[in-house]
Amino acid sequence: MEVNSVTIFLMGRWNPKIFTPAWIRDKLFCLPDNIEIQGLVNFDELDFAFRHNDITIFPRASSVEIKTNTNTKEQFTILSEITLRVLEVLPQTPIKAVGVNFKYEVKKTDSLSLVKYLNSLVPSYKNLTLSQVKLEMVLNGYKINIISEMAEESFNIIFNFHHSKISVLPPDFVNKYIFKAQNILYDGDK
């Protein structure tokens, strides 16, 4: 089962002016001066973002978003490393929470444990239909939220690993959390 996208949110009070192209290249991507990174602008929101090798960083006043659509263990390791670097090089920033989100799209006919469970739910009541299910699991130091959006033939399943107290994130945490999410998809209770 491949994840469609991975997004990490660092919620806090950020100074987006720190996140210049040179600073991001040097401090977060750890690239030499002769390598350029791509700058992106969302004109509707006046958001600026920076991209290198399909990793995009969106610095905002209330959050820093780090994401990729590339589905490899190596890319997920780099996401973990960049996130940990942000926390390391800006330790004075007041951080409220860290969220690590994975999105999967699965068919309703898949034989995954979580899909079987979602299919077992009553799809409608009178004229009301079930469009979304939210499940949660509280673990030591963080919470897993699982939001399943129901379509006609598939489920969009979003896993959110939420840290409300910023403790030390383990090295390579993105790959560890993907492993945990896939255990939940396949086995249901692990």
Task: Walk me through this protein's architecture.
It is a single chain. The chain has 190 residues and is an alpha+beta fold. It has one domain. It contains four helices and eleven strands, in the order E-H-E-E-E-E-H-E-H-E-E-E-E-E-H. It has helices at 21-28, 73-89, 113-120, 173-187, and strands spanning 5-12, 38-42, 47-52, 55-59, 63-68, 95-107, 124-125, 128-129, 132-139, 142-150, 154-163. A nine-stranded antiparallel sheet has the order 2-3-4-5-1-6-11-10-9. The longest helix is centred in the middle third of the chain and has 17 residues, at 73-89. It is elongated and about 60 Å long. The two termini are 16 Å apart. 25% of the residues are buried. The model has no long low-confidence stretch (mean pLDDT 91).
Summarize the structure.
The chain has 190 residues and is of the alpha+beta class.
Number of domains: 1
Helix content: 25-40%
Largest sheet: number of strands, sense, barrel closure: 9 strands, antiparallel
Let me know the number of strands. 11
Key features of this structure:
190 residues; two-stranded antiparallel sheet; 4 helices; nine-stranded antiparallel sheet; alpha+beta; single chain
